């Protein structure tokens, strides 16, 4: 197809991806279902190759989600590909820890993955522990990487916040949530021994230390308040351009 050379030259052109999507829809509308499905499966293979060339191409990641959703649909006699796609994110993360799109896709797949597995409370807790271990190991290698903190924050917030979103371990007892959160805080503090100039570390400590009293149903203690003041000062030093944001955060922490 003539668009393939164009994609190789312009892999982030929205309109090329859009045109291919339209062509594929014609296959569904005009061709026998088995033939159309084979064409869509080949397209998934093409997207995989494109993401091998440019692992962080968010246009290709978005297009991949559309292709997968169509392959799963009744229009192509589809079935779930959530396990396959979850493994794909693992593969892409193992190749490049900084692949924000892979981490983002992984976070979106998790609720459906656990539901389709019929995961009970024990399996869900084990899954949460495994994901925390995965991203913690990655942070030990690259604590300056914002994409890793995005996923870590997703896991912690999923565990601690009552925001109406689907939870990985919805029946996790409060004391267990607090234990996990304390462990994450201590592990992040350990990062400061080797990396004391990375803003994301301090931002995580500010967020998680404020979350812990909420989980435990208490107010901040004096030690936590002192820590917050220290970390807030460091964040201001490392990122002075966002002084307004830090002023707001200081008020949220009750430090102003």
TrEMBL record:
Reactions the enzyme catalyzes: geranylgeranyl diphosphate + L-cysteinyl-[protein] = S-geranylgeranyl-L-cysteinyl-[protein] + diphosphate
Keyword Transferase: yes
EC number: 2.5.1.60
Gene Ontology biological-process annotations: prenylation
InterPro entries per the UniProt record, alphabetical: Prenyl_trans_a
Keywords: Prenyltransferase, Repeat, Transferase
GO molecular function, one term: Rab geranylgeranyltransferase activity
Signal peptide (residue range): none
EC top class named in words: transferase
Coiled coil residues, start to end: none
One GO term describing the cellular component: Rab-protein geranylgeranyltransferase complex
Job of this protein: Catalyzes the transfer of a geranyl-geranyl moiety from geranyl-geranyl pyrophosphate to cysteines occuring in specific C-terminal amino acid sequences.
Family, as annotated: Belongs to the protein prenyltransferase subunit alpha family.
Protein name per Swiss-Prot or TrEMBL: Geranylgeranyl transferase type-2 subunit alpha
Organism listed in the record: Colletotrichum spaethianum
């Amino acid at each position: 197809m003539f668009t393939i050379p164009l994609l190789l030259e312009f892999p982030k052109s929205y309109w090329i991806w859009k045109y291919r999507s339209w062509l594929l829809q014609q296959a569904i509308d005009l061709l026998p279902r088995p033939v159309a499905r084979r064409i869509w499966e080949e397209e998934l293979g093409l997207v995989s190759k494109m993401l091998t060339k440019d692992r962080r191409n968010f246009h290709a990641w978005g297009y991949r989600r559309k292709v997968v959703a169509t392959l799963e649909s009744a229009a192509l006699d589809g079935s779930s590909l959530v396990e396959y796609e979850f493994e794909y994110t693992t593969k892409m993360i193992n190749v490049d820890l900084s692949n924000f799109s892979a981490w983002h896709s992984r976070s979106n797949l998790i609720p459906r993955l656990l539901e389709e597995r019929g995961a009970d409370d024990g399996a869900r807790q084990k899954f949460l522990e495994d994901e925390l271990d995965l991203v913690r190991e990655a942070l030990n290698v690259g604590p300056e990487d914002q994409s890793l903190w995005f996923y870590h924050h997703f896991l912690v917030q999923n565990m601690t916040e009552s925001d109406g979103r689907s939870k990985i371990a919805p029946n996790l007892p409060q004391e267990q949530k607090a234990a996990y959160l304390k462990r994450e805080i201590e592990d992040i503090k350990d990062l400061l021994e080797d990396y004391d100039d990375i803003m994301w570390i301090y931002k995580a400590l500010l967020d998680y230390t404020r979350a812990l009293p909420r989980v435990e149903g208490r107010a901040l203690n004096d030690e936590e308040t002192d820590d917050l003041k220290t970390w807030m000062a460091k964040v201001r030093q490392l990122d002075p351009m966002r002084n307004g944001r830090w002023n707001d955060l200081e008020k949220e922490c009750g430090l102003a």
